[in-house]
Amino acid sequence: MNATQLDTLRALLARQFAKHVDSNYILTSEEERCPYECDGLSAYRYLPLIVVLPADSAQVQAILEICHEQSVPVVARGAGTGLSGGALPLAHGVLLSLARLNQIIEIDPDNSRARVQPGVRNLAISEAAKPYGLHYAPDPSSQIACSIGGNVAENAGGVHCLKYGLTVNNLLTLQVILADGELVTIGGGGLDSPGYDLLALMTGSEGMLGIIVEITVKLLPIPERAQVAMAAFNNVEQAGQAVADIIAAGILPSGLEMMDNLAIRAAEDFVQANYPVDAAAILLCEVDGGEAEITEEIAKVKQCLLDSGSTEVQTARDDAERARFWAGRKAAFPAVGRISPDYYCMDGTIPRRHLPRVLREITEMSAQFGLRAANVFHAGDGNLHPLILYNGNNPGELERAEQFGGKILELCVEVGGTITGEHGVGLEKINQMCVQFPPEELTLFHQVKACFDPDGLLNPNKAIPTLNRCAEFGAMHIHAGDERFPHLERF
Ligand SMILES: Cc1cc2nc3c(=O)[nH]c(=O)nc-3n(C[C@H](O)[C@H](O)[C@H](O)COP(=O)(O)OP(=O)(O)OC[C@H]3O[C@@H](n4cnc5c(N)ncnc54)[C@H](O)[C@@H]3O)c2cc1C
Fold first, then answer.
1. Does the CB atom of residue 206 touch ligand 1 within 6 A?
2. How much is the average pLDDT of 404-430?
3. SS3 at position 315
4. d(CA 14, CA 11)
5. pTM, whole model, 2 decimals?
6. Which of 75, 141, 346 to mutate to test the pocket of ligand 1 (most atoms within 8 A of CB)?
7. Mean pLDDT, residues 91-120 taken together
8. Contact present, 251 and 205 (Cβ < 8 Å)
9. pLDDT at 353
10. Among 101, 394, 404, 413, which is disulfide-ready with 117 (CB 3.0 to 4.6 Å)?
11. Strand 113-116 and strand 171-177: pairing?
């Protein structure tokens, strides 16, 4: 489509949307559309054709019906904190923001559940449930900002998911609007329901199967108490080994996180968490429950950490110190953002026993690519987040960061892991899907998408690569410059 055709389509959509949505919430000027050109993965930017912010699910339905009629693609957006480019818009598509659907409809303490709209912030659910002694367990580090709709679409994880499960394990029902505007309710009140598990299918579907307009989540009792141990190590591999040893000892911590020296120093500089800045790595291991249980478990954890070679183990003396230990970990991404103009965040998952090997190879790759990598991750889940530091203003550095990141993800697959643990595939990891899945399985994925969205209008060409793309990737690996994602313009 040329510029004139795009202008004509924008004007037509704006007129049609205005029949249903207050025109203040239909954004057409370049200035208004600009804030939506990227998500948390800011390396790539595309200006959407038009942005629309509906107020309720009836308006979402009307927008999808119009887009269906006009064959216009739609990209959903929650809070835009995604780190894989899932909410990256299309130059010829609608950016559908769910930000105004931000009501907590009901907290139901008797049944330990909450009904919420998709634009509600993750942390706001726990804040609303707190007076009832309840909380929503999955806690991404972005929880002060990210939306629950985005969490469902990405199957988000967090520090406490090792014990309490990912988003998918904490959902009961979803209301979803399909590409043609039909509203469906999936899931059920019980722990299981007959038929295919559409709730699990929709979770992690990255806005490609339907638009989530209401969510019923499970609430859990706030643990009576929690205690955290912080252990310092002289080398990263030993810390990796300690993770495997703790789990092998039969302990199920509520959180088990690791940071390497670069991440420790960045976080300490930012939030003064009292981290040992000379340590090669630290582990934060939290246990929760009743007083007696915690005392017994934390003693076992300390012993395990010392046996694994930790040079120093501290336990938080009070809740304020516990919060300080966690503040460093939770602020690690922005802290790394302070020491480098740009960073590229990877999200591979590996079987825990391979942590020492994979961490060693990441260090070797860092030297090979000439780029620093800070490691901050959900170690208990084997979910790595190497943050590759680069400067996008230096020619070729973004491409080197992409290649380095791609190699890390391919290593994760090689040791029996996956290319994403919680951030989704989006655009960023689409090539590595070709490494993870054989053509037969990718074909099945496309067939599933076609059942929900036969015209391919919802977040097209994200997450599931075409077989052609895989063939090209096999031959050429990653494209450079503006040719990086040519398929986005081709839709
Ligand atoms: C500092 C920082 C720390 C982070 N830490 C974590 C972490 O610990 N764990 C973790 O899992 N993630 C983490 N993330 C990544 C991100 O916060 C999560 O992926 C989050 O779930 C995205 O939510 P969002 O509302 O920002 O979604 P967006 O970025 O707006 O969208 C993400 C995807 O969901 C789709 N989508 C959004 N809303 C809907 C909807 N209502 N219906 C259908 N599709 C929809 C979009 O199309 C897109 O594909 C972190 C990000 C940052 C910046």
1. yes
2. 94
3. strand
4. 5
5. 0.93
6. 141
7. 98
8. no
9. 85
10. 101
11. unpaired
Predicted confidence band at 193 (pLDDT cuts at 50, 70, 90)?
confident
- Backbone phi and psi for residue 86, each to the nearest 5 degrees, phi listed first: -65, -35
Starting at the edge strand that comes first in sequence, how are the strands of the sheet with 373-377 ordered? Answer: 312-315, 225-233, 281-289, 255-260, 373-377, 386-390, 342-345
| pLDDT tens track for 9-32 | 999 999 999 999 999 999 999 999
Render pLDDT for 471-480 as a digit per residue (tens, 0 to 9).
988 744 433 3
Report domain 343-490's class.
alpha beta
Mean model confidence pLDDT for the chain: 93
Measured CA to CA, the distance from residue 49 to residue 173 in angstroms comes to 32
- The pLDDT, as a whole number, for residue 466 is 93
CB-CB contact of 139 with 231 (8 Å): no
Distance 147 CA to ligand 1 centre (A): 7
Residues in the chain: 491
Q: Ligand 1 center to residue 142 CA distance, Å? A: 8
- The model's pLDDT over 52-69, given as tens digits with 9 standing for 90+, comes to 999 999 999 999 999 999
Name the pLDDT band for 485 (thresholds 50, 70, 90).
very low
Domain assignments of the chain as residue spans, ordered by start: 3-97, 104-221, 225-336, 343-490
Q: Which among 38, 342, 344, 423 is the best mutation to test ligand 1's pocket, defined by most ligand atoms within 8 Å of the CB?
A: 423
**Helices and strands, number each (H, E), in the chain:** 18, 18
Ligand 1 close to Cβ of residue 21 (< 6 A):
no
104-221 folds as: 3.30.465
Identify whether the C-beta of residue 444 lies closer than 8 Å to the C-beta of residue 451. no
Evaluate whether 225-336 and 343-490 have a shared fold: yes
225-336 is a CATH 3.40.50.150 domain? no
Angle, helices 291-307 vs 236-248, to 10°: value is 140
CATH 1.20.1250.20 fits 3-97, yes or no: no
In degrees and rounded to multiples of 5, residue 401 shows phi and psi of: -65, -40
